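Sample entry (145 residues):
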Amino acid sequence: MDRLEASAWALSRGAFSVFVVAVVLKQVSWQIAFVVLMSAVAVWAFRAPAAVGAVLGVIAWMVHLGFDINKNGELVHIGAADAPRLAILVGVGVVSTLAGRPFRTWVAHGTSRSREAGVTENARLPVGVSRERVPGCAIEESRDV
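Predicted structure, serialized as tokens:
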């Protein structure tokens, strides 16, 4: 999976999660729903690029206005109170991606270093498990193991 596809998956899953949270919590006070939305944005943006975190913050702001403040599903701008909410949600998304950057770098370098050190895929298998063909199995693999 390339980076663009990974970003698209993170954005679509995060947007769906934020939408579900906003719809489920539309009966509680908007402050509680806002805190839960901030948490959802932070979780989904942690392993995504900064642009995905920012867009996820904007999506969360829109569904928050539509379902938690207006309660009817219509996007209605209140005015001056909207700007801080938008800034907070976008900021949470961007800060979360920046906080997740060392984790993503560690994961990327960890796999490349293990390949450079000559660690094979069989070395990562649990004890007693091998990639040998099972005798009598009708499925033939065409690639080398």
